[in-house]
Amino acid sequence: MWLKQALLALGVASTSCLTQTSGNGTSPNPDHRGPLWGVSSPPFYPSPWMDGSGGWEEAYRKAQKFVKQLTLLEKVNLTTGVGWQGEECVGNVGAIPRLGFRSLCMHDAPLGVRNVDYVSAFSAGGTVAASWDRQLFRQRGYMMGSEFRDKGIDVQLGPVVGPLGRIPAGGRNWEGFSPDPVLSGVAVAQTVKGIQDAGVIACTKHYIVNEQEHFRQTPEAAGYGYSIKESSSSNLDDVAMHELYLWPFADAVRAGTGAIMCSYQQINNSYGCQNSYTMNYLLKGELGFQGFVMSDWQAQHSGVSSALAGMDMSMPGDTSFLTGVSYWGTNLSVAILNGSIPEWRLDDMATRVMASWYYVGRDKTSIPTNFNSWTRDTFGFRHEYGQTDYGLINQHVDVRDEHGRGIRKQAARSTVLLKNKGVLPLTGNEKFTAVFGHDADDAPWGPNGCPDRGCNKGTLAMGWGSGTAEYPYLISPLTAIQAKLLENDKNIQFVTDNYAYGKIAFAARQASVCIAFVNADSGEGYISVDRNEGDRKDLKLWADGETLIQKVAADCNNTIVVIHSVGPVIVSSFKDNPNVTAILWAGLPGQQSGNSIVDILYGDEIPGGKLPFTMGAKREDYGVDILYEPNNGDEAPQDEFNEGILIDYRYFDKMNIAPDYEFGFGLTYTTFTYSNLQIQHHRVDPYKPTRGRTNPAPSLSGNGTNGTVDPSTAQWPANLTYVLGYIYPYLNSTDLGTAAGGADYGLPNDEYLPPHATDGSSQPKIPAGGAPGGNPALYDVLFTVRATITNDGDVPAEEIAQLYVCLGGPRDAVRVLRGFDRVSIQPKGSAVFEADLTRRDLSNWDTGSQNWVITNFTKTVYVGGSSRSLPLKQVLRF
Ligand code: NOJ
């Protein structure tokens, strides 16, 4: 392994595509690292103010009009959470009662509404990614969004593209989509659009390189035995940042995501929620993000610094849960009054929040919040922590509509057939069916028995943590298979104790078909299950699933394996076993789990999903792993992203490691032939870096700018009833030093504020920027690729056709995914697969010019059915 790493570092590992120079463009700067490299994150100030470009014009105008009416305190209220358990949602900001504007509600999760009844539990992001189906992504987003809307939620805390899935054992990968940035980018964009079509703001998270659970928060690390003073730092270079991790965020921004959540860990040793480079430069500058950045819960570590670095909303508002004090709230009011933060920055925060609200149409679709996430009781305290305001808090509104059907279909379309020796689909007339494994069964305490799904009991249909929803029901595979077989009054037996080997052998020996259900779980770092501290401790099946499969297969020569897992698992011990006649990866299917798998097993749905990640033979084959132990004494653990862009299939390909099942692989009941590759070149204008300067920061402060608001107007109102723990914007003294909640160091501004941080004058535009998603010319279509796909068989089927490009440079991946489509083809019929290649698709990030550049290296296009089955190939001619 060390030899491979060394070769990788030298950039001399194998590459299968040509590398001689041709074409136009310039070479990327040989210094791969760029300004971002490990030890520090460069400062960037001032924080770019919203300009309302790229479809945000109207929302921007309305937001400015709204914000212009606000007092200082009201603006602060829009930006600061009321504290943990202060209101009904997982996060709320303060209300503006004078204008009848209720407290905005931010609520989990990326797969459905968390901690509430009468909602749907959708398939997880990492599962629907396996459908590679744009329409499905959007439809699922819309369905989720409408449930959030009807519960009275303003912001859905999802979707997820951070973690991207750098490390297969990463605890929260399943909340996101795929370690491939293009697949993730398409999925996140469609999901954002779906959610926002329903009239709810999507919050794309966690920004950025939040790739493992270990050491994301110091108190949490103490919980599993490590004393560290600061959260870990994800250290990466500028190329990996742009070509890999920032890519899907760019797609989310381009799709109009109204919110972004900054993450817990540090990026090159600067915290995610006070990192001026990632928030000011990359997100608001280069990507032209128009919405607002909210902190992850307790991810804020400073007051003035986080505001100047680009954070717009503090969640849940208190410094850490239930302290009753905030970095913002009163302290933000003081910081504006004493000039540490210019008022244009506060105006920009408030404008961004309100523009997102208008952008998705919440002025038309907003309904009052009708639940309280801290209890299922109908009556209780509205302020859970303060225990005040007793009344009707849960109206139990059923918001599910017909979504159950959609979920069933979505999960079936996301199921991947990995092996089939002609045994699938089953007929339902098998004489004796035997079902095995705890993963087939209902959980003893019911599907919601463990808070935040923090256990692995019964069938697995979502991971654990804040990324969960309450199941309205969970159809287990055993329930659904029994129902199916009862249609023909067939014989069905089961053993759901994974370790009852004698019973397993007895049932397996009699059966004509055996179906073994196995799983592997993971989740968020605040819960540890079976010594998996959020991140998985290994890639094995849980409850010794491998032995279960071996035991079943030893006595049953028709053993079908169904895997429910959060990501890749090791399948080497059973995949080639001749008695294992079929293997299905069903991911985390959500509430309809059993029905969806029955639809696949018994032929009501034809399997057509493909793996959104690589299934390696062993964990070492991935080249990267979780940093399980601190490596920097009690200082911040240093998580070095030395592999750069080479994660998942890119690493396997570069190192010539054979996976068990490659990225993009999946079978159906027919085969396909690819032919007739045609590439059409489009003439477009040459790429122009964005130039010029921004307007100065707009001044919306009719109520006075810095130093002109009289602190006496910002004092605690005499008649206010204080709610315990609640965060307010008011001051408790007219002396600003005393009013602030922290120490007064007596320094003049310019000695403790970063240079330019308060400068509201016109600023140079960023060359790679220019509109939401980056320079609009990055999305110019340079080529259209077409290929004919023929269905060789006698059954109708869908093929997920994939387009890869070799960018040709020595440091590039062998191939990168750049396009895909799920195409439906009649028996013996053909269809044309078509995919566009944009300028971004063909560019590398050039650290020198800080822009995207099409290099001189020969670019080769590949088309086929998986990352390793690419029968068509052609060199691109510019
Ligand atoms: C922390 C998680 O990282 C985030 O994803 C979630 O939205 C918040 N907690 C709120 O529950």
CATH architecture of one domain: 3-Layer(aba) Sandwich
Percent of residues in helices comes to 10-25%
How large a portion of the residues is in β-strands, by DSSP E?
Answer: 15-25%
Strand order of the largest sheet: 1-2-3-4-6-9
Radius of gyration: 27 Å
CA distance, first residue to last residue = 39 Å
The total of helices stands at 23
CATH superfamily of one domain: Glycoside hydrolase family 3 C-terminal domain
Classify the fold: give the CATH topology of one domain. Rossmann fold
Largest sheet: 6 strands, mixed
Bound molecules: 1-deoxynojirimycin
What shape does the CA trace take? globular
Helix-strand category: alpha/beta
CATH top level of one domain is: Alpha Beta
Strand segment count = 27
> Low-confidence spans: pLDDT under 50, at least 5 residues?
1-16, 18-30, 742-750
Mean pLDDT: 94
Keywords: Carbohydrate metabolism, Glycoprotein, Glycosidase, Hydrolase, Polysaccharide degradation, Signal
Enzyme class: hydrolase
Family: Belongs to the glycosyl hydrolase 3 family.
Catalytic activity: Hydrolysis of terminal, non-reducing beta-D-glucosyl residues with release of beta-D-glucose
